[in-house]
Amino acid sequence: MSAFIVLGAQWGDEGKGKMTDYLAEDADVVVRFQGGNNAGHTVEVGDKQYKLHLIPSGILYRDKLNVIGNGVVVDPKALFDEIDYLKNAGVDVTPENLIISDRAHLIMPYHKILDGIKEKARGKNDIGTTGKGIGPCYTDKMERSGIRVCDLMHKDVFEEKLRENIEVKSSIITKVFNGESLSFEEMYNEYLGYAERMKPFVRDISVEVYDKIKSGKNVLFEGAQGTLLDIDYGTYPYVTSSNTIAGGVSNGVGIGPTMITSAVGIAKAYTTRVGKGPFPTELLEETGEWLREKGHEYGVTTGRARRCGWLDLVILKSAARISGLTSFAVTKIDTLAGMEKIKVCTGYRFDGKIIDYVPASLEDLAKCEPIYEEFDGWDESIADARSYEELPENAKKYLNKIENFTDTKVSIVSVGPRRDQTIKVKDI
Ligand code: GDP
Ligand code: IMO
Ligand code: MG
User: Fold this and answer.
1) Which ligand is nearest to the CA of 330?
2) CATH number (domain holding residue 299)
3) 284 and 247, same structural domain?
4) Which cofactors does this protein require (predicted)?
5) DSSP notation for 406-418
6) Residue 275 Cα, ligand 3 centroid: separation in angstroms?
7) Which of 126, 343, 344, 403 lies in disulfide reach of 122, CB 3.0 to 4.6 Å?
8) Same domain, 333 and 412
9) Is 320 in the same domain as 383?
10) pLDDT below 70 — which residues of the chain?
């Protein structure tokens, strides 16, 4: 039995989809515990590429159970679009291989409207959200006016909650933001259609996942976003609205922390970020451009160019601490081939001191000056390496630095987007 977490150690897009797919081979169950379709997880198997947003990345295997946890916010339209997309790609999604928590909150059309108009109202201080309604949906959850999947299963309950919400949201949208009023009928009928289609998938997933772990099955918890986008430990307010760190698994699935056996942090060999917010090691000149082009750093969900920078070990060390990471999987190290010198950040100079953690205040973080250590690069492509021994000596030195600085082993090295382009170095 094992219950292990795969989560992002940076600002998202570290390769969680690829690593989940790789590690899912040994899992029976793959569970999403937070976030929603703001995520964009790419999985490549052979010559086929799949882009997943809401459905766990274990769906490409025929024999795995995939679970959407209570901590996830579910946009039913996005869910069924993704199920249809997978069907067209030859992957059948049925209640046999996907179940959805009855406690998950629903993203409603007004959440998407509010996401857009609130961003616009923030002006130059916008967060750069994905526009999927994530923040407004989690706001309603915490404010206790949200509509859950179980409510949608009861027509009268759903009707009452929708009427209350439409009244309040309509007045905010029209009176505060000068937007258009909402129509109850249209939304009600649209969601009743989703209710019918969703019903067979709905379960108490805490019971299901608990039973699987108890009966000796292997369960993988697939994180979305990354540690620095966490609502508590990220670069607030330039974060997402959920707990992306390991602690998010317990409340997002209804599984006690003592049942979790390990946590793998996915770390890109350099750093990227989409959307706004501080980024100490960002490269605003041609090296950043080089990384973006070589690493195809464009968002899966929004198509936006990702900001690129050097690897920041302060961030990885913080991620290891906050999530109790038992190892790192380092991805995209193949992208670095051809660089003469590679820098890594090993501390921040702040207020006359050197610190190795990420300060809470953005004003303090803005004052942090990265301290770099320089490594010699390597020329040879490593996309075809299939063992640790085949890696260039300089790449090994780079990986050793990550291990030593973070006091966390590197268990996996990823040298390309495909499932087979993966080197298992140590047990996870
Ligand atoms: P996620 O959100 O963490 O799942 O990551 P994304 O899918 O948004 O972005 C990662 C991108 O890098 C995807 O296009 C992957 O196919 C690709 N990728 C993952 N691992 C590697 C790797 O080791 N090397 C290269 N070159 N690409 C990779
Ligand atoms: P995956 O799972 C990278 C970012 C957005 C924005 C901030 C808030 O593919 O790694 P939101 O729509 O969540 O309210 O946006 O978070 N963001 C991501 N960045 N990868 C993601 O997911 C992200 N999901 C949200 O760009 O800065
Ligand atoms: Mg992504």
Assistant:
1) 1
2) 3.90.170.10
3) no
4) Mg(2+)
5) HT--EEEEE-SSB
6) 12
7) 126
8) yes
9) yes
10) none
Helices in 241-295 by DSSP H: which ranges? 247-253, 286-294
How confident is the model at residue 1, as a pLDDT? 83
* Nearest C-alpha neighbor of 314 from the set 263, 352, 363, 350: 350
Q: How many residues does the chain have?
A: 428
Closest Cα to atom 25 of ligand 1: 416
Residue 17 beta carbon below 6 angstroms from any ligand 2 atom: no
Which atom belonging to ligand 2 lies closest to the Cα atom of 229? 16
CA of residue 15 to ligand 1 center, whole Å? 4
- Answer positive or negative: Cα dihedral of 98, 220, 231, 125: negative
In three-state secondary structure terms, 241 is coil
Among 134, 144, 148, smallest CA distance to 35 is for 134
Is residue 364 flagged as an active site residue?
A: no
Point out the domain boundary residue: 180, 198, 216. Answer: 198
Q: Of all atoms in ligand 1, which is nearest to the CA of residue 301? A: 8
- Quote the ligand 3 centre to 167 CA distance (angstroms): 35
Clarify whether residues 293 and 397 are in a common domain.
Answer: yes
Residue nearest to atom 6 of ligand 1 (CA): 13
Contact 331, 269 (CB under 8 A): yes
- Which tokens hold the place of 30? 């793959």
Instruction: Give rounded-to-5 percent helix, strand, coil for the chain.
Output: 40, 20, 40
pTM of the model: 0.98
Q: Is the CB of 44 under 6 A from ligand 1?
A: yes
Assigned token pair, 404 = 């030593």
Tell me what pLDDT residue 333 has: 98
Domain count, the chain: 3
Residues having C-beta closer than 5 Å to ion ligand 3:
13, 40, 300
Are residue 98 and residue 109 in the same domain, yes or no?
A: no
pLDDT digits (tens, 9 = 90+) for 120-169: 999 999 999 999 999 999 999 999 999 999 999 999 999 999 999 999 99
DSSP category for residue 246: T
Q: Whose CA is nearest to atom 26 of ligand 2?
A: 275
Q: How many angstroms separate the most distant Cα atoms in the chain?
A: 66
Query: Does 234 sit in the ligand 2 pocket, CB within 6 Å?
Result: no
> Residues with Cβ < 8 Å from 428, sequence gap 6 or more?
4, 23, 262, 264, 326, 327, 329, 411, 412
Q: The domain containing residue 18 runs over which residues?
A: 3-102+202-263
Pair (242, 156) in one structural domain? no
146 close to ligand 1 (CB < 6 Angstrom): no
- Residues 137, 221 share a domain: no
Ligand 3 center to 41 CA (angstroms): 5
